[in-house]
Amino acid sequence: RSHAREILHCLKEKYFKELQDLEVDGQKVEMPQSLSWYPEELAWHTNLSRKILRKSPQLEKFHQFLVSETECGNISRQEAVSMIPPLLLNINPHHKILDMCAAPGSKTAQLIEMLHADMNVPFPKGFVIANDVDNKRCYLLVHQAKRLNSPCIMVVNHDASSIPNLQIDVDGRKEVLFYDRILCDVPCSGDGTMRKNIDVWKKWTTQNSLQLHGLQLRIATRGVEQLAEGGRMVYSTCSLNPIENEAVIASLLEKSQGALELADVSSELPGLKRMPGITKWKVMLKDGQWFEEWKDVPSNRQTQIRPTMFPVKDEEKLKAMNLERCLRILPHHQNTGGFFVAVLIKKSPMPWNKRQPKVHQKLPQGTGDTEVTAVNSNNGSECVTEEATLAENEESKKMQELQNSDTEQSKKEGVCGPPPSKKMKLFGFKEDPFVFLPEDDPLFLPIQKFYALDPSFPKMNLLTRTQEGKKRQLYMVSKELRNVLLNNSEKMKVINTGIKVWSRNSDGEQFGCAFRLAQEGIYTLYPFIHARIISVCIEDVKILLTQENPFLSKFSSETQKKVKDMAMGSIVLKYDPDPQKPDDLQCPIVLCGWQGKTSLRAFVPKNERLHYLRMMGVEVFKAKRKEEESESKTEEAVQHRLTQTEEGMDVEDKDHDLVTKMEAEIAEESSHSPVESSAMEVENKSEDLGLSRKNDNSHVSQESKDADTSNVKD
């Protein structure tokens, strides 16, 4: 948050002022405006197109700022109305959150940001499970989430309409996981995006909504089943068609029999222009036929049009639903896309779930049968979802009996492998297992000693992505996500979780510790580290970020004194702002570094380095141009130097031709860039190098492999 305030100050005082009175092609450039309804001026709207952004040198600088800061995760660029659903969830740091249809991940980024509202708490008690049905889009989601470096996010790959019930361990007994907040941003026809999406005009038909309605209702139903009592679910679409919106909500409310209610959010987000939800609409076929009621639909059309698509006729029922509490955002009201949002609160279990689901391992066989029978007789057609859930649980029960010994053994070892069930085999890449470090792992002791880790450090939360051979990277998750991972490995396809906190050095043992710190996880790790910390002044930070391997003599005398008695190896460089100097940078900075015999250097991804320099008022635009010129002259020397550096950055999996080729290109490009090899940096570089993402393998290589190129898939 402190960095966000610094960026806002930088935008207002520098970049926006440069846009004043600027003309491009004879047209005056409109100043960006803050969105009045978004808290703390943290969202801004601009009408500038990419084409215009690239035409003028002043705008090119602004454009470069936007791209670079987006890559760092410090800003996100997204449609304004898409920012509304996370705000209406009212998230607190202890909430367990499910994002059902999360890709490409802009809303997920907002959810993570809200979890970490207090930056002094490295591990909030809450977490975000971000799901998407499309395996390839899951990797895009991983990239978006990775920018925020949170140990509290897990990306999974499931069909949202049948996402499995997860279990967690509560005081030694298994319980079903219910979520405090659920974001249900369902697939839709997208007709609200007609201002920016020309395709909508060509491809739109009434059929789109008729085909999607059933899926939207199934996803929303699955969502409310997994919501905790008193929890809040936001349903949203970028469509204005009532069949995708009010019809889904009305059907959900009707079958909930009072278990759900629409929340009145009229007082939330003041300044947002909105329209109430509608209560009357008609249904139209592709050929132009209108129907006002289900009974009017001819039998040969009853597969295309379903009863749930029509408005409720009973006036009392309709009034009790309060459909006017839904939000409709119209494009012409505040120059945005069209959008629909409904906020649902769960007051009691769903009628077909009256007894909250129990863990089926503990249920005697007879109880399971009677429960199925009771559900069938009481609820008729409405029990389809629950039947499916029970069937799924029965199936998983049988599967568990078959594999019980294996599963128990792997849990003892802290291994969360890919799901063994054939039913779960989705198309996509085979993920490496998640292996938690055993409590007595000899690997951890030298790390603990070298960095003088606090006794409260949660070493049980450390994991690797390899079961055999040398552990190359150590990742960290929160205690709550560890609980989820260990208890659900057989029913959940996890694409990614955890942030990298340590990387192995090929010759690190001679420096007292085989693992160096990773910038990606330093803000999470820093509160637990009590050794190898050097406090630096702002001038030292500038030297560290602008020079590749500066000699110790270039630093302030205080820094030189601190370094003098310290052994070579990985270090933490900490800058604390001085309130007495308001013109200096006013947010704390923690950098990973390396102390050599005669030099001191920072390992920071390129865009993050540029971010800190901007915040300190250093002009990076021209510096980048100079960098590019020098890069072409010194690329061979740089490549050689990067492979020979004293910190011994590792290169593994040489047989991954594409990844190895990328390393070389990254090395060439980072001539004056002491760079921490991170998944994020590979993303940045791959974008600049214009490498194709069409090929699946290159998609994984770019978005999921570090420049260290271990066999770890992000």
Automatic annotation (TrEMBL):
One of its GO terms (biological process) is tRNA methylation. InterPro entries: MeTrfase_RsmB-F_NOP2_cat, MeTrfase_RsmB-F_NOP2_dom, Pre-PUA_NSUN2, PUA_NSUN2, RCMT, RCMT_NCL1, SAM-dependent_MTases_sf. Residues 367-382 have a biased composition (Polar residues). It is found in: Nucleus; Secreted, Extracellular exosome. Its EC number is 2.1.1.203. GO terms for cellular component: cytoplasm; extracellular region; nucleus. S-adenosyl-L-methionine binds at residues 101-107, 132, 159, 185. One of its GO terms (molecular function) is tRNA binding. It holds the Pfam family Methyltr_RsmB-F. The active site is at 238 (nucleophile). It comes from the Eukaryota. Its main location: nucleus. It catalyses: cytidine(50) in tRNA + S-adenosyl-L-methionine = 5-methylcytidine(50) in tRNA + S-adenosyl-L-homocysteine + H(+); a cytidine in mRNA + S-adenosyl-L-methionine = a 5-methylcytidine in mRNA + S-adenosyl-L-homocysteine + H(+); cytidine(34) in tRNA precursor + S-adenosyl-L-methionine = 5-methylcytidine(34) in tRNA precursor + S-adenosyl-L-homocysteine + H(+); cytidine(48) in tRNA + S-adenosyl-L-methionine = 5-methylcytidine(48) in tRNA + S-adenosyl-L-homocysteine + H(+). Residues 352-418, 624-714 are annotated as: Disordered. Residues 624-639, 651-664, 682-714 have a biased composition (Basic and acidic residues). Residues 1-347 form the SAM-dependent MTase RsmB/NOP-type domain. Keywords: Methyltransferase, Nucleus, RNA-binding, S-adenosyl-L-methionine, Transferase, tRNA processing, tRNA-binding. Belongs to the class I-like SAM-binding methyltransferase superfamily. RsmB/NOP family. This is tRNA (cytosine(34)-C(5))-methyltransferase. It comes from Psophia crepitans (common trumpeter).
